[in-house]
Predict the 3D structure of the following.
Amino acid sequence: MQLIYQSYYFNTKQKNKIILISRCMYNLLRSILFCFDPEQVHYFSMNLLQSVCKTKPGRWFVQKLFKPADQPVEVGGLTFRNPVGLAAGFDKNASYLLALDSLGFSHVEIGTVTPRAQEGNEKPRLFRLKKDYALINRMGFNNQGVDLVKQHVLQWRRDHPQSTLMVGGNIGKNKITSNEDAWNDYLLCFEALYDVVDYFTVNVSSPNTPGLRALQEVEALEVILQALADARRAETVIKPVFLKIAPDMNDADALAVAALVARLNLTGLIISNTTIDRKNLRTPEQELERIGPGGLSGMPLKNRAQQLLHRIAADYGHQLVLVGSGGIFTASDARERMQAGASLIQVWTSFVYAGPSVIKNILSK
């Protein structure tokens, strides 16, 4: 019966019609959800989707609607089933891997993970800029701590050994840890997660932990990256290590950081994190003042992230693996990043605005 059901309802024409209907339904649902607090909506939506995917019929239906056919790419010694991943900050505690796997992301970056659990910044701390297709967040590395996050990933691995989803560990320092001791926080997370994640991303570029971006300066950054490079050399399996950089760096500083990553034989860069820039937004100035500080993501980040990627690729594209992130909403956006030198791309804000069809949209020819 199931085969008859599949062949009848999911031939290409019917499937495209259902996808179109699902997009319209999501737009309607989004208009309702956007009436409520963004952080609460995030957890409500993901908990609901996770619950649906825990049932075999629910998971099958979600995969049929949204999971694209594989378009494998080899990056950093790993095979990604397609180029589109989910950036860090969406699934901080590895709580939604089943749902995100079912939607078709090739990789999900969990975290940012810190050694000890922390609450993050005071709420509200996530805001929509609907006129700009953007978000502002000042979450502050809220997470359950590396030990519990590790257990979540281990449980995922045990329950879904056949999954081809790549899990990246985005690591950071606790707010109470001084910058002088930050290297130890990164090393603790690196060693704790080494056997359970597929690759790592070092986050020194979030604007939401006081003083964190000072760690992007080459001298401070070298202490952290050298410790991780040394630890990686001691492992039997060498896993990819990326550094995520801020779009607010000038080109010269970004190139100096790229040179350091290349010199230490690390894998590459993710370009880029959120920005503190508020220029040329459609959102009224009064609303921006009411929202206050935080990292801006989404459409306004597109041009700077593209320009910075292109600049670094010109000098280091032959040595480093580059991952494009920031303002990627369409297939055209993705092609521009790939043509500029990206091997993979990551989304976050476009997932919020476009919904679960975003991966198929981006991978469409």
